[in-house]
Amino acid sequence: MKKQHRALILQGGGAVGAYQAGVLKILCKRLIEEDKKKADSNSEYDHDSKPLLFDIIAGTSIGAMNGAVLLSQYLKTGSWETAAEQLEQFWTDKEKGLASTLSEGDLKKVGWEGWSKQSGTSGIASAEAARRYYSAKYYFFHGAPKVQETIKDFPEHDSRFFDNTLNSWYLHKSDLLEKTILNFARRKITTSHEKNQPRLLVFSVDAAEGKTVTFDSYSRADSSRKSGVKIDHVMASGTLPEFYDYKQIGGHKFWDGGLLSNTPFRELLQAHQEYWMGVTSKTKKDNNNIHIPDLEVYIINLHPAKRKVLPIDHDGVKDRQNDITFGDRSSHYDEKMVYLVADLKDFATQMKKLSHEAISNVRKESDKKRLKKIFDDILKARTSTASKGFDNGKSSSTYGTLLIGQYKLTKVVRIERTERKKGYYTDTIYGKAGDFTAKTIDGLIDEGKRDATDASLA
Q1: In the prediction, which pLDDT does 221 show?
Q2: Distances in Å between the alpha carbon of 407 and those of 190, 192, 411?
Q3: Which residues pair with 421 in a beta bridge?
Q4: Phi, psi angle pair for 294, to nearest 5°
Q5: Handedness of CA 61, 80, 185, 137 (dihedral sign)
Q6: What do you get for the CA distance between the two ends of the chain, in Å?
Q7: Of the candidates 261, 229, 342, 343, which has an alpha carbon nearest to the alpha carbon of residue 295?
Q8: Number of neighbouring beta carbons within 10 Å of residue 33
Q9: pLDDT per residue over 90-137, tens digit each?
Q10: H or E, element range at 415
Q11: If you average pLDDT over residues 230-235, what whole number do you get?
């Protein structure tokens, strides 16, 4: 078992997911070079029979789709660089990819001509912003060739409150998107640690339960859950409410995973611990020697966390709200908590050793037994998380089990779309997640390549 695993987290964001393809084109190359240098310069480097660039890929919504394509292509070719190239093709290929083009006539159908007559006037959107805005608007009302189809019977007007204009509903079908994904990804991805294959984690929301659901390409160690991430699971992860109808799987209805976890860092950490606790507890009689590989994590975020100047127009305000809603809101806190818990576990482990040593030095046998019993009773006592039912009968049921299965975060690298230059936000729009035009996608991929090149991986 390797001492450390490398994980990739892919945030959701619709068409902006093309940015991740650009980042990964550079990131894969840089990490391969970095691993080679470490192996060449260090005889004690953590070698594996066939080293993995990413041991875990965790994605939500478009991040889940990108992850499915990347892993499928790696399993097919055995090359991460080739897989990254194919991920770019998933976005740009004229025949099989997501991108498409729109004519000036198409844009006129949704109001572009009104803007063009006022172009150049103070306060009017830039030409590029207008192109993006009306492109996304066209795709919303008329469908995108490789992504979605607007259901012809819609908009469906509201009949409950009789306010049809305000309550119109444009619903879409995702069959085209599924077909495009399957041009590059497997219909079902099943992998295992025993075969030295990466693990894929995909996240969705059970709409009825209001809880995040994890779909895993690995089987549970206790065989209580069958392995495999199916195309239905990937589509469920990207089932945006109002835009698509519920995705039904096994009697449950699912929505986009981004509603609860658009940056699934916490879910990754939990899944990593639970899996390796199960694996090592099966193979080792002494639970005190359970080993969980440390984690090195790379997060590719699509929604800028900061903005220097706040917008005052309606579309701009909605765009900023969207970035905050689906941005990386909690992973910094989760990272801090992992470090804190690791420190507390180290402290408690040292105190446990000190207690054993102190008890062993007690001369009177009756006192030694009494102290040992007190110590053992402390370890057997149920934790507050267990007594309140928050642990689901898992790793934190007693104080003793809190010390089992320690692992550390050795590195967390975030590559995020940011304000790189003056006027960066001039061309942004609220509907950027729906702009699948080739020009926009090419620009996002180039942006991702630049950011990955500039990013520090230290």
Answers
A1: 61
A2: 26, 21, 12
A3: none
A4: -65, 165
A5: positive
A6: 24
A7: 342
A8: 10
A9: 999 999 999 999 999 999 999 999 999 888 788 899 999 999 999 999
A10: strand 409-416
A11: 98
Count of Cβ atoms closer than 10 Å to residue 47 Cβ: 11
Instruction: Kindly report the length of the chain.
Output: 458
Helix (H, G, I), strand (E, B) or coil at 28: helix
Q: What angle do CA 224, 228, 231 make, to 5 degrees?
A: 140
Partners of 253 in the beta sheet? 248
pLDDT of 452 above 80: yes
- 130 vs 133: CA distance, rounded Å: 5
Residue labelled with tokens 């259901």: 151
How far apart, in whole angstroms, are the C-alpha atoms of residue 322 and residue 434?
Answer: 13
Residues 42 and 444: their CA atoms lie apart, in Å, by: 37
Single-letter code of the amino acid located at 428: T
Using CA atoms, how far apart are residues 350 and 183, in angstroms rounded to an integer? 54
**Top-confidence residue, 26 or 123:** 26
Residue 49: the pLDDT is 45
Tally Cβ neighbours within 10 Å of residue 343.
Answer: 11
Phi, psi of 227 (to 5 degrees): -85, 165
Which tokens is 315 given? 């579309």
Q: Which residues fall within 8 angstroms of residue 424, CB to CB, at 6 or more apart?
A: none
CB neighbour class for 262 (10 Å; exposed up to 12, middle 13-18, buried from 19): buried
The DSSP-derived string for 86-154 is HHHHHHH-TTTSS-B---HHHHHTTTHHHHHHHTTSTTPPPHHHHHHHHHHHHHHHH-BTTTBEE-TTP
Sequence-ordered list of residues with C-beta below 8 angstroms from that of 117, at least 6 positions apart, any chain: none
pTM assigned to the model: 0.92
Residues 360-391: pLDDT tens digits?
Answer: 999 999 999 999 999 999 988 988 877 666 66
